[in-house]
Amino acid sequence: MPHIVHRIGIHAPVTQVLQALATAEGVAGWWTRHTSGSADPGGLMTAAFQNPKGEEIGRFVIETLPHASDTELQWRVKEGPVEWVNTEISFSLSSQDGQTIVRFAHRHWPDAEEFMAHCSMKWATFLLSLRQLVEQGTGRPAPDDLKIDNWN
Amino acid sequence: MPHIVHRIGIHAPVTQVLQALATAEGVAGWWTRHTSGSADPGGLMTAAFQNPKGEEIGRFVIETLPHASDTELQWRVKEGPVEWVNTEISFSLSSQDGQTIVRFAHRHWPDAEEFMAHCSMKWATFLLSLRQLVEQGTGRPAPDDLKIDNWN
Asked: ∠ CA(A65), CA(A71), CA(A77), 5° rounding?
């Protein structure tokens, strides 16, 4: 099944990048401000997206899987758009050349069609938002996220 | 084989977006300034990348395939990094909600590993550069492209 994969480097220690990924408060700083629940292993985190009018346009319920290692996080999508349900999202971190390298993957899409293409582009901009949060203190989470096409 | 797919919307007519994709001069405005040759069907275009010192760090030779339609462009990679050779890059354009929607694909990677992840992230930023070029008149082609990790 098709996968989205991205790679980004962040000028900050691994522990600081992990903080932005391993708690709902951290995720609210770069993905969507309306993130709540628990990002602990076994916990459920809800990430909701609103349009500029404050109406909900999407909602994901995500389970954090048991950590395979100290530098790897894995989420499973429990609820959301049908294409997302049971997909897996992972962040694998390493230290290279004074940067924290984040290998991102969103795996097991039903097909590599237009919605995956939209989400691939959105993930790239959210990873830039994550970098901005960690390096500069402020990310660009929804609803102030960069709009990339007529879908969002 | 794995594919990179992205989707972006540009606030400009389809013909204006095509101009930035269908000539070497256009491509030089958003991908790499050192683009030369012919982007006509059957033609060969060379896109070279330099580091800040002006040393070449990569070079691609790309053949434009016969146009399947007026709103679709397809490239085949003839020379470049081994993972790129014989891959296909395509841009499919449509008009939706007052935007030109670009469906981008880079198909037939040998695997969805780290280099593809790097290139997926880079393509996303080059598509933002394409949008900036078309909407605002100035893109961000290499060597002034956004650096995304320790590889470039």
From this structure: 30
Q: Looking at beta carbons, which residues of chain A come within 8 Å of B116?
A: 5
Alpha helices in B22-113 (DSSP H): 24-27
Q: How far is CA B44 from CA B20, B40, B112, in A?
A: 16, 8, 27
| d(CA A129, nearest CA chain B) in Å | 12
Q: Which chain A residues are closer than 8 Å to B128 by Cβ?
A: 125
- The answer to whether A121 and A149 have CB atoms below 8 angstroms apart is yes
Q: Which of A101, A127, A148 sits opposite B8 (nearest CB)?
A: A148
Q: What is the residue-level pLDDT of chain B in tens, covering all 152 positions?
A: 899 999 999 999 999 999 999 999 999 999 999 999 999 999 999 999 998 788 999 999 999 999 889 999 999 999 999 999 999 999 999 999 999 999 999 999 999 999 999 999 999 999 999 999 999 999 999 999 999 999 99
Pairing of strands B34-37, A44-50: unpaired
**Helix pair B14-21, B114-136: axis angle to 10 deg:** 130
CA distances from B33 to B9, B29, B49, B139, B141 (A): 23, 6, 8, 10, 6
**Structure-derived torsion over alpha carbons of residues A22, A73, B84, B57, reported in degrees to the nearest 10:** 50
One-letter identity of residue B128: L
ipTM of the complex: 0.96
Cβ atoms of residues B127 and B104 within 8 Å: yes
Residue A67 is given by DSSP the state P
Pairing, β A34-37 against β B44-50? unpaired
